[in-house]
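Methods — Computational structure assignment.
A single polypeptide chain was analysed. Its primary sequence is given first, followed by the predicted tertiary structure written as structure tokens.
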Amino acid sequence: MAALTKDRATPERDGRRVIDPIGPTTVIHAGAMYMLNEDGDAVPADPAVASAPGVLGMPRAVALRSASGPDGDTHVEGALGVFRVDNSATFPVSRLGVHALCNVVDDHTVRALHDPGVLAAVVVDLDDTGVWVRVGGM
């Protein structure tokens, strides 16, 4: 392709939003962490799904609104960034886990890094109500 010879409007995105396809039977709730399955479709973050061959094990994004394949949605809109999720009661992330990786428990909960486990994200902070994690774009 040749270099530009005149001005043009170049589309821009902030890099925090993504749109991913979902399958016809998938339901992803607003605020849920989701990952991509072996077909490239969004599915709720779940260690059982993440351990399947070809699945990207870390959450891709957090859903900005609910999306339901059974209701006719074909895509889910997600955001990359730092989000507060629930802390596991069984293997909680502690202050010592800040700036370390953590594992997915389900689409809204993380636990302290434990092997084996599905990596979730980097812990950014911790407070009385949950764990702040960086999701996507790592």
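Note: Residues 81-135 form one domain.
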